[in-house]
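Hi team, as promised in this morning's meeting, here are the two structures we talked about. I've kept the exact order from the run log so nobody has to guess. The first one is mostly here for context; it's the second one we should focus on when we meet again. Sequence first, then the predicted structure tokens.
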Amino acid sequence: MRNRRLWAGLGAVTALLVASGCGGSVDKAGGGSGPRPTVLRMFSGLDEVEPFIQAVGEVSEGELRIDRIHSKHGESGEADLIRAVRDGRYDLAVVPVRAWHGAGVSDFDALVAPLAVDSYALQQKVLDGDIAATMLKGVRKAGVEEIGILPGPMRKPVGITRFLRGPEDYRGAKIGAATSAVAARTLRTLGARPVPRAFYGASIAGLDGVEHQVLNVALDQYDVAAESITANVNLWPRPAVVVGNPKHLRALSGDQRGDLRRAAHTAVESMTTEMRQAEADEGTEALCRRGRVRFENTTAAQLARLRKAVDPVYAWLRQDARTRGYLDRIRALRHGTKAARDAEIPSCEGQGADRSPTERSGLDGAYKMTTSEDELVAAGAAGDEVKPQNWGDFRLVFAKGHFAFTTENTEACVWAYGEFTVRDRQLTLTVGGGGGTSPNHAANQFGERFVFRWSAYRDLLTLSGVKGQVSPTPFWVKPWRRISNTPDDGLLSRKCPPPAAAFTG
């Protein structure tokens, strides 16, 4: 339901651009009697950009609206995306920092230098300051115009055949990594062999480890193969640059161009907060509940050796005068962030798997709820929840500690199943699996946990959110109507039913 997919990828950008033609010019939205907003088409494979999209509308007071285009593939098309914006096929695009070195722009290398920006707190400091504004000017060399830099998740060492703590653990290892000149140089310097990987659920077989973010280790279910995550090491963040086509931006007023830049700056804090929350709630908590991967910490001595081992990478980076200056300024900003950095370290302490009842509960039976997109929005759904798989004909079945639900409409049909527990007036759903079809290819993942307050009156089951818990809005847009006292899985969608194992444990 409410999955934050932090990288939806761009591997098929070239094919998509051919299919979508030249419709990248700034356009006016139709409908309504008031002033029509100017619509900007923006390509982004990153779901976490929703706060930026919302900020554009708020800062511009409705004069600007972002129409986000995205695709689910790997990161290999990032260079194609830069060219697509330059050539005018899109008004805007969000391009990860790691892609720019390969496009001849080295101005962002300091942001992804190994162990330099090593916490969300420091990343926010850097992006809130004037360093980011200075770096941004470099994109002009690629024929595009700068808008802003958005924060990204922290990438950690994930061990598959070995723990990745000190530099000695990297020697001879095949490490899957997103395409990045700086990351590849770092891994080779540590004696590892970088193996390009798009991730997003792609196979990591044959690798000794990967560099990846905690949330997507959970969403991609890489904990099936992975053995450990080095909790107190952040190799580098994955920030992204918002750029625009110069000609299309000139069609806007000066105030509107300023609104775009202010929106990017405004979104830094809210995006950082949402990413940290998602990492904790949907990443760390899910991984701890599954119990298949261990969070390991390096010792102070191992971390010191790791920093020393990447000195040659810094010598290479510091050959560029601008990068050298950025690195020095980032180092100065690190003072005072240690406490915040330590507070961000994920841990399974105090967390464990829920137990589900085997006896019949008072909720057992089948339920139905039908909602529309407008009703979902009116219920207060967040931007990343307003997706086709989150409205339509919902069916929900509870049976002796197991549940399954389906959602079906003309654009999507998805299913999920798992176990549930009831404690007083709190209902907890722990997902065992999910699938189906939807425009953004989202599906519920093993280990996700949703918590709701519940009440029942006659044939109506009413759910509501619980403060501090993940309580997806699509579940409580309306009351659910009981359509059978018998937990009949035949009442779920026939178009996309869950597997038969949904109610057998």
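And here is the second protein, the one for discussion:
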Amino acid sequence: DGGANWSQQNSGTNCFLYSASFINNDVGIIVGDQGVILKTSNGGITWDLLNNGTTFNINSMHFTDINHGFTANFLGEFLMTSDGGENWTRKNIGTIEDLQAIFFIDSLTGFIAGPPSLIYKTIDGGNTWSFKNIGTGNRIVSLYFTNKDVGYGCGENGTIIKTEDAGFTWSFQNSPTTNYLSSIFFVNGQGFAVGVDGIILKQIVGTSTWQIKHSKENCWLESVYFVDPQYGFTVGSPGYIYKTINGGDTWIRLGDSSGYSGEHYQGVFFRNKNIGYIVGGYSYEGGLLSTTNDGGMTWISQSFNTRYDFTSICFPDTMIGYIAGEDGEIWKTNSGGLLALNDLSSLHRDTIIIYPNPTAEKFIIDFERTNLSEIITVEVYSIRGEKVFTKVLYGIVKHEFSLSNKPPGIYLIHVISGNKSATVKIIKQ
């Protein structure tokens, strides 16, 4: 629903999660501290922790398809998989510097950045690498290629660079800031970059000039993603989520998943205008994965059994996804990565009537307009993704539920009937 509601999901880890990416609607990846990599193959409903043989923090990850994936880690290490994360090969690019950014055009050609002034390139799937010194003296921490020849990077001191010959040479763009730039993204030839002090830059199309569209003190934006030329999202710390619906000219702040300023958002990915994911960590609790099915207006957070933060998320298809993070952890999902977000068989929310809403104690769910099967499962979750109760109904079109012994707040009502599902928000006063 365009960011109206978000849900927090259980990631099974306490690590910071830095980056998220979906290869398609089902397959997604999240990476984080100490080598954490999580994968989903079912759109994010469930996530598995992948064994990759490293405890180095994973800063960035990129999948070109459901099988071929790559990560950029601490101390010059990177990981490669060619079988969907079942097995990983550890290699060093030839430096002890931390690798910050990775982008692969296909399963053979890719780029890595991290050490000051250096951009690495491979044309054999990561087996061998060459590098170019771009002469900036600054670290490049984010890379994005719009095609096999044209690519961009951003990093320290407001640096923005561009190549038009597949990385053979790089030129500097006209950046209006010296702020650290954390993430760069392009959609239909239009560029955006975000960074420290809540800065959001937009490229003037067809030029090397960028303009400041937003800034805010005490805010560090870490990741930016656009669904189409109009709809975009950016996230950061502490607990900031911004959205644009007019191509990045203006941005509005959305409510975060819990209102807790200790949340550090590191990565964002959206399948469409409504369904999206953010990853990161809590100051003292570890990994965080939150999902939305209404364009970011509300979120549900998913808990993971780990103390390490998540850094990156990647979905190579609709159901299969990956999360990576600290201590080399990699998690995988085969169910799409989120609660009650079945694109093909979801119920229309307007057909499920819940009243009174807000409520002081009890509420009624009316299913008369839904045309559901005789067996209906109703699950109630807190805003942090904790299950409050489950009720199975048989042939009932209307039922009363009680929240009398529950604290005030926002609750999520998850209705399941056959292969259809929907989530509706209710407020207890």
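Starting points for discussion:
Confidence is low (pLDDT under 50) at residues 256-261, 339-346.
The chain has two domains: 6-333, 349-428.
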